[in-house]
Each structure stands twice: as structure tokens, then as C-alpha cells.
Amino acid sequence: MAGGGCCDGDSNCRAALREAFGESSDSDSNAPSGVSSGAGRERWRWEAVAGIRGLWLCAAFLSADEQARLLATIQREGWFIDANNQLSTLIREAICLGDVNVGVGSEMTNEDEDACPLPSDLLWREPFFDQLIANRYNPGEGIRVHVDLMRFDDGIAIVSLESACVMHFSQAEPTGTVLDTGHLKKGDREPTKIPVYLNPGSLVVMSGDARYLWKHEINRKPGVQQWDGRELEQHRRTSVTLRKLLASPN
């Protein structure tokens, strides 16, 4: 069911963004070299991933040109500082101004009427993100199943570049009893795995249950990357992950 963005209106969204980040332009002439804030509103469509509370996907977060410019600047000196600011701004704007889809054919609840890829306390925290890491994976290389470390706050964003892939999510605690052999007790079921297709330029945001109660992995071994009944051809993949460190207890 489609709806508006997370703010109460276009003018309110832009006013809030101007207050937080200053003026932005849709023209590339004044845009940072990596990504251009404000240029993607028409293509931003947020999808809530069925079965996982707090997991949202924006398939067309970055245009092909923005992806190319972002990749071209990864090795530039000081890029991580600039990119953290640029991507943080763009992610916040995409969440505010993008359309939200809570599921075709589902009944809208009072909670869904306020559906947003991130809760407001995370969306407007300062800084939004303060840690950025870019990783490159050759064909066959992926990420092991894991839950992000607890030293990071709620709300994690992952931008995918270059190669398409399928990220699998599974519940952090298995539903069955594991025997000493490592197998599930007879009668218990394997934990459910939910696949999410990540095309180049996509953005996935995790908060709440998706961040803490679900593990995620990308297995790029031959034959594993399947989508719509076909095996995905694997190329080099680059991911950019943005997180916020928790304040030190000291």
C-alpha cells in the first residue's frame, strides 16, 4: 500500500532538511563529487520487507551516474569523511521524501499509517551516522552470517554497488534444539531464511528487530546466489555500510 514519505508534508520536509544541512540543489554543478543530494526524489520508493520488522529496501537509491561517481572517489584522500556526510544527508532525505510501501494487499493498521524506514529518534539523531566502511568483494567472496556488534547503535544502512546479490536473513535464535552433532532435533524445523535482492545502487536500512533479532549474510559460492529461478552472475561487489557508535560508558 503506497503512501507518502515520513514527514508531514513536502514543505515541512525541505524546511527540516535545510535547517539540518543547509541549502541543497538538484543541479550537479553544486553537488559534492560523490553523490548529489536532492536529485533522486522521483525514484525513491521504500519497500518494507515482509516477515522482518524494521527491514526496509530502497531499490533505486542511487542512479547509475551517482554510483559511478561514488566508486570513482572511494580511493580519494579524505573520501571517508566526505562520503559519510554526503551519504548520511542523502539517506535522511530519501527516508523523508521517498514513497513508502507497507505491502500490497495488506490491511493498513494505525501503526502502518506512520510507517517509516527509521523511527524518528534515529532519523533525527546527531550525528546520524559517524562510522563508514567500504568493502570490496571479488566473485565468490561474501559475508558470514552475523548480527552487527552491540557497540553500534540501532539503525544501520548498507549501500550496494557493482554486482547484484541476494542477502539472506535468518532469526538470530534458532527455533529448534541443536544436538551435539550440530543437527536440529528431529521434528524441529530449520530457521526460516528470507532472501532480499540487492541490485547495484540499492539501499537497505535495518532497525529494531531487523538489526538485533535477525542475522544477515551474503553467500556468493557457486550455485547459492539464486533469484527468480536463475543463478545471478557474480562480479566484483562493493558495499558501503554506515553505522553510529554508541557513546562510551566512561
Your description of this structure?
The model is unreliable at 8-33 and 104-110 (pLDDT under 50). Helix content is 21%, strand content 25%. A hairpin with a 6-residue loop joins strand 2 (45-48) and strand 3 (55-58). It has an 8-stranded mixed sheet with strand order 1-4-2-3-10-7-14-5. Strands 6-11-8-9 form a 4-stranded antiparallel sheet. A two-stranded antiparallel ribbon has the order 12-13. It starts with a strand and ends in a 7-residue tail after the last strand. The longest helix is centred in the middle third of the chain and has 19 residues, at 79-97. It is of the alpha+beta class and 250 residues long. The protein has a domain at 44-99 and 116-173 and 191-249: Jelly Rolls (Sandwich). Helix 1 (10-21) runs antiparallel to helix 3.
The backbone outline, from C-alpha atoms, is: globular
CATH class of the domain at 44-99 and 116-173 and 191-249: Mainly Beta
Multimeric organization: single chain
Number of strands: 14
Classify the secondary structure makeup into a structural class: alpha+beta
The SSE string, one letter per element, is EHEEHHEHHEEEEEEHEEEE
Helices, by number, come to: 6
Termini separation (Å)? 45 Å
Query: Per DSSP, what share of the residues sits in E-state strands of 2 or more residues?
Result: 25-35%
Output mean pLDDT: 79
Strand order within the widest beta sheet: 1-4-2-3-10-7-14-5
Over all CA atoms, what is the radius of gyration?
19 Å
What is the helix content?
Answer: 10-25%
| CATH fold field value of the domain at 44-99 and 116-173 and 191-249 | Jelly Rolls
Q: Catalogue the unreliable spans.
A: 8-33, 104-110
Q: From the coordinates shown, what is the CATH architecture of the domain at 44-99 and 116-173 and 191-249?
A: Sandwich
Note the main sheet: 8 strands, mixed
Family: Belongs to the alkB family.
GO biological process, one term: fatty acid metabolic process
Protein name: Fe2OG dioxygenase domain-containing protein
InterPro entries: AlkB-like (IPR027450), AlkB-like_sf (IPR037151), ALKBH7-like (IPR032870), Oxoglu/Fe-dep_dioxygenase_dom (IPR005123)
